[in-house]
Design goal:
The complex is a heterodimer of chains A (about 350) and B (about 800). Chain A is α+β, with helices and mostly antiparallel strands. Chain A is built from eleven helices and eleven strands. Chain A starts with a helix and ends in a 7-residue tail after the last helix. Classes of the chains: A alpha+beta (about 350), B alpha+beta (about 800).
């Protein structure tokens, strides 16, 4: 019996197998129940004890070697088969994707969110009022009587429908009527902001017939002008994310506040871009003041015991300043490319 | 308002420069809008044309030899006023020309070298005049700077005057306010009263209107005047403000309007009757005004009239026929106090914006009536000669000063700053308020005649802090109280904004972009959607923005069309904002639009969006607010926005929660480029907000036991609402039936027009055990029987 010959034959047959089936047949031919090596092992029983020992050991070694060869060939065939399958499944990775618009949230939404959060941290809850207002709420109650020159500061849109005083409804020219609505409905202390849509008939690159404002109102026993300054400075620091912020309050006039002020923040031009916070130029940010006692009296608030301040700012304007946007008309054009370029993805919202 | 530094200094003695004055103006509430600065003009110099000849290759051009005092240059010039000896303003090559915004380059013009430029006023940004090059009248030395030659060393201020500060609509008023700030000292007015008022005025006044629109009027008659051109000082002053000199009489009234803020009017006395009235206009009374326009008045406007005609619209504008010309020999000067309200009303209804109206509307200094009369008389007499009549007047001038009892502590309470009474008093005195009966805590304040806006304590506080300086107010850092935080937590509006943020996140993560569009829509949209016609905007900017929208669909289709034109094929957008049902009913809704156009990309071909994908999206949105669409009533939509056969409406009780569907083909006819367009409207304000804000997790644990699935097919009536079937099947055994999902719908001729075949899969699972075969079979049988009985449905096998 030539163990070496069997090994050579088996090795050759294993090598020549090219797929799993061939290899399985080889395995059966050598290691199966009637396989060559199995048969040889069976024939051991006819040998003497000594021969059994030595030949047995050789045969077992032979069986082990053949088994290992088959296993390793098996693995080799499997790898080849997988590789060939992968090759056949290959796609063109270099096919460029079609242009798609990445969905974003409008920058104004981001500003709304931040304004509500920042003022929320200072204790302001959110209030609201309608866009279509009465003449009384939008003007008269705010100490802007008919024929007052201040009415001409704001170009008002009118609606055909008339209110119970027989005056045409107006599209609110500012968010200030929410002050009146809140003062009439709630008892002080009152601390609210009211963001929303506002309207004036005006249209160019810095004016849009529709824009957004936020109103603020704080009424209690002693809210004073120092608190007003502190509140607005704190807001601007947080909103514009500038800790070292140079600001200026200068006297102004609004019929519904007195004293009235406008707040400017300093800026400089660095590399053709506006940099907020420092410098010797000023940008107007908002109007504010102590609520005129006439307004409080119009709302039946006891002016002996209560006072406070109010402010209003253009949300589109502060958004444009913060993100360096220049044309307000693009805010409302519905242009999805503009939104994709200037909006915010969910993670940033 | 505009004025020059030197003019201001005629009223104010000051050592402050223009920049310092500009800062002070802003600090006291007279906001500096612009301060002209000509320092960069120092390098433009006076030069003389020594000689010139025609350009050989261009008819209109001349070749000039120009001497700037240092060198002689060759300059090609196209101006028609070129002449030998002309002194003009010269710019050398390399210099920046402000009017054209270019740097001059040395170059050849039609073959001839040009080494510089002689400038027009427009090229120097001094005026719009481009008729020819500047011709200096005075004999300046060549090389003198343009700043000196053109008197540009006088800075021009432009300031914004708020509507309450009528007193600062004059240079004197501005100077007075600056002096209160300590910027200088107010000088006395320099004029002499007419020594001899020689005769009675042949023209007299009576005030006939009973609406108090004219409180007082006073006049003088000037005989034998010579209405020449104004003297140079006066012309220059007017020009410095951009006003055109006309003739001395008119220029004097314009000058006094700006200088003292006192509008007055001059009539040619020979063109008016002897008895003048202040009266209300007759209805449809017509007048040709000085602006050369015809105005038709109504009975609410006050006019100045003689027995024949209206001569002027009171406080607003004079009439053309009675105006002064260079031929005027006799003049009637009118100074009056008109009611601000009536002037404003008339001015606005006629659309006239005049300097006079602007000042009357904001209230005038009554003490300036007689001063203005004297000052004007002095100037007319000095410039035009002649003799002056005694005063003739009507009405009564109420010059009582307004008195306010002022509480010093009120300042500290409002401003949050302890300012001692003596400092407060000093500021008030500087502002020429009179202080009487002062005690420790309060005093009586007499308001100066020019401060009609100061009426009560808070106005006084404002005056003091305005001068004391807003910069000096202490800043206190705000904090929130526990009560306030609680209020925010409970605020329904705050909750609503949270819901809105949540919806936005859901939408964006589903690939939909946010837009914000105007609250308006077009006439056409209004017609098609049949909204409330009283929501028309009376003074709309355009037909496209003429109604308050009762739906966002048109705005979104317009936006889709715009994006389609930009090459975007797959348009998905949403807006959360208001729609208007009437002038007193507005609601915030979510409206989204999906419009997917024919896709030519065979590799990235997206799955076709259809009504059922829309249903899935609507359901997702509702479940993002912690509601289950399956719990609502769902029916076909009756809205004219949607295709009646491919739309649905979701109600909670009677409240509309959502509607969605394919956009109605009639609407899509307006947007022929867009195909396959769907919309969802979510009326989230109709959902109970409390339940939306989820606090606790819902306590349903997953079962550990095996589940089984079984499909059922039924033939239902065509209009059978499958949500009802789903709800019914789920209710057959709430403990075991976990889920009912529809997955096949079959409609065909062999079923008949009134039937549909539907297949759904029921998932069955117990929380207590693995169900045995017989339990399952019993349940299957149960479902088959109950569904077929309840809905008269045929079981399909």
């Amino acid at each position: 019996m030539d163990i070496k010959k069997v090994l050579n034959e088996a090795t050759k047959e294993i090598e020549q197998s090219s797929n799993q089936l061939d290899l399985q047949n080889v395995k059966v031919a050598y290691l199966g129940k009637k396989g060559k090596i199995t048969e040889l092992l069976k024939s051991l029983k006819d040998l003497s004890l000594d021969e059994k020992k030595s030949t047995g050991a050789e045969l077992n070694q032979l069986r082990g070697e053949v088994d290992n060869l088959i296993k390793s060939k098996f693995n080799q065939i499997k790898v080849e088969e997988i590789n060939s399958k992968l090759r056949s499944e290959s796609l063109d990775f270099s096919f460029p994707p079609p242009n798609s618009i990445s969905p974003k949230v409008h920058p104004i939404s981001k500003t709304f969110d931040e304004v509500i959060t920042i003022f929320g941290s200072m204790g302001y809850s959110v209030a609201e009022g309608p866009d279509i207002e009465t003449d009384y709420f939008n003007f008269s109650a705010l100490n802007i009587p008919e024929n007052h020159p201040a009415r001409e500061m704001q170009d008002t849109f009118y609606i055909d429908d008339k209110d119970k005083d027989g005056k045409p409804f107006v599209l609110r020219t500012h968010t200030s009527p929410v002050q009146i609505r809140t003062l009439l409905n709630e008892k002080p202390p009152i601390k609210i902001i009211a963001p929303g849509r506002t309207y004036r008939c005006d249209s160019d690159s810095t004016h849009s017939p529709m824009f957004h404002q936020v109103e603020g109102l704080f009424i209690n026993e002693n809210a004073n002008m120092g608190d007003l300054k502190g509140t607005l400075i704190e807001f601007c620091k947080q909103f514009f994310n500038v800790q070292d912020l140079k600001v200026r309050f200068r006297p102004s006039y609004f019929p519904f506040t007195e004293p009235s002020a406008e707040m400017d923040i300093a800026y400089e031009i660095v590399n053709n871009k506006i940099k907020l916070g420092q410098g010797d130029r000023w940008l107007e940010i908002l109007g504010c003041g102590m609520v005129n006692p006439i307004v409080l009296e119009n709302c039946n608030v006891d002016t002996k015991n209560f006072q406070g301040f109010a402010f209003g700012m253009g949300l589109d304007r502060i958004t444009m300043l913060k993100y360096g946007l220049t044309d307000i008309r693009s805010f409302f054009s519905g242009n999805l490319n503009w939104i994709a370029n200037n909006g915010f993805s969910i993670g940033d919202f | 308002m505009k004025f020059s530094y030197s003019w201001l200094c005629e009223h104010l003695e000051t050592d402050k420069n223009a920049t310092e004055i500009g800062d002070a103006l802003t600090n006291i509430g007279l906001e500096l809008e612009n301060l002209s600065d000509y320092s960069s003009y120092l390098n433009f110099v006076v030069a003389t044309i020594k000689d010139f000849k025609k350009h050989p290759n261009a008819d209109r051009l001349n070749i000039c030899k120009v001497d700037d005092g240092t060198n002689t240059y060759q300059v090609i010039c196209g101006a028609n006023n070129v002449k030998k000896g002309l002194k003009g303003i010269f710019a050398k090559e390399g210099m920046y020309i402000p009017g054209t915004q270019i740097h001059l380059k040395k170059g050849k013009i039609r073959g001839e070298t040009s080494e510089g430029m002689l400038l027009s006023e427009r090229e120097l940004n001094l005026s719009d005049d481009h008729e020819g090059i500047i011709e200096l009248s005075e004999n300046f030395k060549n090389g003198t700077s343009a700043v000196e030659a053109l008197k540009l060393d006088d800075p021009i201020f432009e300031i914004g005057i708020t509507p309450n500060r009528g007193d600062c609509l004059s240079i004197r008023g501005v100077a007075r306010d600056l002096s209160a700030k300590g910027i200088g000292k107010l000088k006395p007015l320099k004029y002499e009263k007419i020594k001899k008022l020689e005769f009675e005025s042949p023209i007299s006044w009576s005030i006939k209107n009973d609406d108090n629109s004219c409180e007082y009027v006073v006049s003088r008659y000037f005989k034998d005047v010579n209405n020449t051109k104004s003297p140079e000082w006066l012309q220059k002053k007017l020009i410095s403000l951009g006003l055109r000199p006309i003739n001395a009489l008119v220029d004097i009234t314009n000058f006094i309007t700006v200088d003292l803020g006192r509008p007055l009017h001059v009539f040619d006395a020979d063109k008016v009757g002897k008895k003048l009235d202040m009266r209300l206009a007759n209805s449809n009374e017509k007048i040709l005004a000085l602006d050369n326009k015809d105005y038709t008045l109504d009975g609410s406007s006050t006019v100045i009239a003689d027995s024949n005609n209206a001569l002027a619209i009171a406080g607003i504008i004079g009439g053309d026929h009675s105006g002064c010309t260079e031929n005027t020999k006799n003049v009637f000067l009118e100074v009056a106090i008109f009611n601000p309200n009536s002037v404003a009303k008339t001015g606005r209804s006629l659309g006239i914006n005049s300097d006079a109206r602007y000042r009357f509307e904001r209230g005038l200094d009554k003490n300036m009536v007689l001063e203005g009369l004297e000052y004007a008389s002095y100037l007319i007499n000095k410039i035009c000669g002649g003799s002056v009549s005694k005063n003739t007047d009507a009405g009564k001038l109420d010059t009582n000063e307004h008195k306010i009892k002022y509480d010093f502590n009120y300042f500290n309470k409002v401003i949050g700053l302890d300012l001692e009474p003596q400092i407060q008093v000093k500021i008030l005195k500087d502002l020429e308020f009179q202080i009487n009966e002062r005690s420790d805590n309060e005093c009586d304040v007499l308001v100066p005649s020019w401060r009609n806006d100061v009426k009560n304590n808070i106005d006084i506080v404002e005056e003091i802090i305005r001068i004391y300086g807003y910069d000096n107010i202490n800043v206190s850092v705000p904090i929130s109280s526990r009560d306030e935080i609680k209020k925010i937590e409970n605020s329904l509006v705050n909750k609503k904004f949270k819901i809105i943020s949540k919806l936005k996140k859901t939408l964006v993560s589903n690939g939909i972009s946010e837009v914000i569009t105007f609250s308006f829509h077009s006439n056409r949209a209004q017609e098609i959607l049949t909204g409330d016609t009283s929501l028309k905007i009376s003074n709309a900017i355009s037909d496209d923005q003429s109604f308050m929208r009762n739906s966002m669909i048109f705005n979104h289709l317009e936006s889709a069309e715009l994006n389609f034109k930009k090459g975007i094929k797959n348009i998905q957008l949403f807006e959360i904002g208001p729609i208007y049902n009437s002038s007193q009913s507005q609601e915030n809704i979510l409206s989204l639009l999906i419009s997917s156009q024919d896709d030519t990309n065979s590799i990235y071909k997206s799955v076709n969006f259809n009504f059922y994908s829309l249903t899935e999206l609507a359901s997702k949105l509702i479940s993002s607010l912690n509601f289950d669409i399956k719990h609502f009533n769902i029916s076909r939509s009756t809205s004219n926005i949607y295709h009646p056969g491919q739309s649905a409406e979701v109600h909670m009780g009677k409240k509309l929660i959502a509607r969605y569907g394919k956009v109605h083909p009639l609407i899509m006819e307006e947007f022929p480029k867009l195909k396959n367009t769907y919309a969802i409207e979510l009326f989230f304000e109709n959902l109970p907000i409390e339940s939306i804000s989820r606090i606790n997790s819902i306590n349903i644990s997953d079962s550990q036991f095996q589940f089984s699935e079984k499909d059922f097919s039924f033939i239902f009536e065509k209009e059978q609402n499958l949500y009802e079937v789903q709800r019914y099947v789920t209710g057959i055994d709430k403990n075991l039936i976990k889920n009912v999902e529809f997955f096949d719908l079959y409609e065909s001729k062999d079923l008949g027009d009134s039937s549909k075949s539907v297949t759904f899969r029921v998932t069955i699972q117990s929380k207590e055990k693995t169900l045995e075969e017989k339990d399952l079979e019993q349940l299957h049988k149960n479902i088959l029987e109950k569904v077929s009985n309840k809905f008269k449905a045929k079981i399909r096998t």
